[in-house]
Amino acid sequence: MNLILAEDTRKTSVLLKHYEITTPVIPYHQHNEHNLTPRIVERIWKGESIALVTDAGTPGISDPGFLLVRECLAKGIKTECLPGATAFVPALVNSGLPCDSFYFEGFLPHKKGRNKIMEFLKDSTQTMVFYESPFRLLKTLELFSVTFGPARRAAISRELSKLHEENVRGTLAELIAHFSISTIKGEIVIVVSGKDD
Length: 197
What we know:
By secondary structure, the chain is of the alpha/beta class. It has 7 helices and 8 strands, in the order βαβαβααβαβαββαβ. 35% of the residues lie in helices and 20% in strands. A hairpin with a 7-residue loop joins β6 (153-158) and β7 (166-171). α2 runs parallel beside α3 and α6 (137-148) packs antiparallel against α7. The relative contact order is 0.13.
């Protein structure tokens, strides 16, 4: 292995040190992936072996990786994926909402495009899955309440598979009330029921 790309080199370095892996590590995240990808693809094309790791979950699922895989495939470079635990799957199952068919949005845009996505989803009959930051959770729940109605069933999963895991279910109005008085930390998955026929 010639190089490891890491979403957060501090976190990855702890793991690498534990296993006595001394391969060089450089940051690869949403702020540099557009600039760095062509150079990385060129290095792989020339024969180097490069790995990409993310903080948690599977690379490319709401994490860096999509651009690198797409560019490698465009050049005929073989890629391999070893999945990590992806938060939306246990959140979807734990929600108690139908999971035979679902729509995964990941993180909503902060501003531009958010309303267009909400307009697209407002009449969806599929269960919908979103990632969200603890800092924007209430604002997003309020947007969902306006778009889908306050009585729409939903579930919030937080810090899945970690010490402080929490799963809260109820209507959007109930979830807004709950998280208005709770301290919100950690990685969050929101699961919202689809529109009833």
